[in-house]
Every structure is written in structure tokens, then in C-alpha cells.
Amino acid sequence: MRFVIVTGMSGAGKSSTLKMLEDAGYFCVDNLPVPLISKFAQLLFNDHAEYDKIAIGVDIRSGQGLAELEPFLNSMKENHHPYEILYLDCSDEVLVKRYKETRRAHPLAGTGRVESGISQEREKTAFLKQKADYILDTSQLLVRELKAQIDKIFVENEGFRNFMITVLSFGFKYGIPSDADLVFDVRFLANPYYVPELKYKTGNEKEVQDFVMQTEAAGQFLDKLEDMLTFLIPNYINEGKNQLVIGIGCTGGKHRSVTLANAIHKRLCNLEYAVKVEHRDIGKDTANVVLRRSEEGTV
Q1: Residue 287: what pLDDT?
Q2: What is the pTM of this model?
Q3: Who's near 248: CB < 8 A, 6+ residues apart?
Q4: CATH architecture for the domain at 2-154
């Protein structure tokens, strides 16, 4: 039997995750009072249990009863009843934004500030995060990306490491990403923008990639960056970090940064971490580009 406890920060995607698990064939129960979870588990682990894949949602709505969950988990372990904990995390900034967008109140905030409720919730659920088998930070995840991670862990039964890497290209003219942990400037490389036939293309196209990577400096930068990240990532993991945003910037975020972000993403995929690439500014000024192309007769 697979017994999964889905928990974490309110607003981090627990309800969506339970729906995904239900679609995958799990019997799901949300917000079951903690005192009843023990009785529920006893029924599930008897010899005549009807279900072999169970997921229960537990969060701060359990109130004071949440503290009773720890003795229950200890009892499960003593009775050799296997369980897994999935903890859904999210940055405070994104959680506040989600609450404002949905116009919902945080369970612990009452009439106070959302930030206060979030802070209290982190304290009260800290023991669950420490016990978690899987920690998914949904701050930067799209719904389809969350589903891919859920399927990987609970459907395809693939190995999982609690570490998400986002390689993010951007343009300095639009500002440095506020959530970037590491920022690298690739404006030292020749700029395809000044090559007429490449000006309106992007780093997702082979012609631009070939131009950017033709110099020895580009290859050396990529090798040195890979070497540094290979060293840093295990150390970040040892310190409890569960996500890393690597910003790669050039002037406009369309040519050099996109090329290098794609290249380092490809290399990091070989390290068995959850890695994705995003291009923040690649679509900026699209209307102006179309207009200029029309004026130049290149559309």
C-alpha cells in the first residue's frame, strides 16, 4: 500500500495536487481531523483493505490538532506501516500574491496581515517539512510542471531529489530578476543584435546559437560555469536549500543570454536534478520588432 500525506503551506497547491493524485487512481481525503486519521489508517492497513493507493490532505486548518500528527507518525513507524510525506512549499512573496488575487483570507491571519499568517504557518508546519520525503517548491511551477513532478514521483515511481533548478535568461535593460540566487552577465560576448540577419532572431534559433558559441570565450565560460554549479549545488542541498534560480543576463534577453541559458540547462539535465529553463524577456518588444521588420521589408 502507498499512503501519502500531502501537506505544506496554504496556497502552495495542495488542493490541486490532491486532484492530480485522484486522477492518477489514488483514494483522496482532504482536511480529515487529525484524531480521525489514526482510525482511518487502522482501517486501511487491515488485511481486507479495498484501496492500495491513499492520499490524505493535512494542513493548518487542523488547528491545535496538527500537533497530534507527530505522535501518529511515530506510531505508524513503530507498527511498520509505511507512509510518505509530500510537503508543498512556496515563497512568501508568491503566497501573498496568490491570496490577493483570489481575495481569500489566510487561515491564521484572521483580520490581520497575510504575512503574519504565513509566518505562523511556517512555524507550525516546520516539523512536517523536516520529516518530508519530498519537498516541492511551487513558487515558479506552472500547473503542468507540478503535474509532471507529481506523476514522476507517485505514478512513474522515478527517483526524486528535493531540489529544483531554474535557469532563467533575462535582459539587464528590464532589470535583474528579484528571485535570482546567482546572476551571470554574458554581455562580454559578441552581440548578434548588430548582425542584420540575426537581429530579429533569438537564442532559440541555431543561427544565433552558432554565432554566440563560435568564440573560445563562450565555450570556456560554459565549462567554468558548469564546474562551479557542480560544486555549489550539493553544498546548497546540504544546507537545506531546495531550489536554485540561476540568472543569465545580456542586454535585451533575446540572444546571448537565451543561448547560454539553453546550453547550461542541457548540461545540468545530466546531473539528475529537476531542471527547467525560462526566458523571461525573449518576447519583449515583439510588436516593435514586427513593425521594424515590416518597414525593412523582411516580414
Answers
A1: 46
A2: 0.65
A3: 167, 168, 169, 170, 184, 186, 257, 260, 261, 264
A4: 3-Layer(aba) Sandwich (3.40)
